[in-house]
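INFO batch 0412 | record 1 of 1 | parsing
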Amino acid sequence: MSGSVLFDAPGPRTRVRHVLYSVAAGVVVLVALGAAAWRLYDADQFAGEKWEVFVTPDYVRIILLDGVVKTLQMAAASIAGAVVFGALFGIGKLSDHAWVRWPSWAVVELFRAIPVLLMMVFTWYALGPTGDNSFRAVVVALTVYNGAVLAEVLRAGVLAVPKGQSEAAYALGMRKSQVMVQVLVPQAVKIMLPAIISQCIVALKDTALGLYVLAPGLTFIYRQLYLEFNNRVPTMIVVAGLYIVINLLLTALANWAQRRYVGERRQLVVPMTGSADQRTV
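INFO prediction complete | emitting tokens
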């Protein structure tokens, strides 16, 4: 019994229709891409002088050092801060003491509600609208926003741990702080690890908003290049490609971490008594 019991297997005509739908959708996508490429070609966006900057060593060095490195630094600093922020306020929301629980709830809900860009602009003016503070404004804004999200993730992860774990710890005479730190949080981190790394990807992409507060990074370099060389589309394609490559690497890291520390759900094959068939659970 290898077929699914949730739906009927498609018949020959249905399979043919699915193939035709897939082919038609593929043709539409190819036509759209071809039309876009033709319009770019017609607007001289594929001219050599518009792409030459991306093979010039001095400019490549600027893109990599002032663009990619600064972006990764902002993302790394904000992610580290967000993990600490999320751990503190996530545990605070689980506290039995109202004077800890309610302020933690208010802080988390406040920073979850404020858009990241507004937080960057507010922080930038609060610190002083100068170039030196633009980096800090991006890090602070991404820290509090992603930290608020991670606080909810941590709370959900702790609540997802089976109750028997905490009950057994209490039966051994452990205090609540010991149960939380030594029993619940380690298991919750294992559950929420993929969500944490996914939030890291969100933080990396949100560094692009730093352009509005003049923060260094890929989008800042993007603005400088297209203003100097009048090659907005080629620069956009290259910068988007760099973001895609970095995010693919982080996605691969997330998948590896999930396999390594969380594991994958495997199907359990149960042999049926008195039958040569096997049932998958």
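INFO post-check: Strands lie at 269-271, 278-280.
INFO record closed
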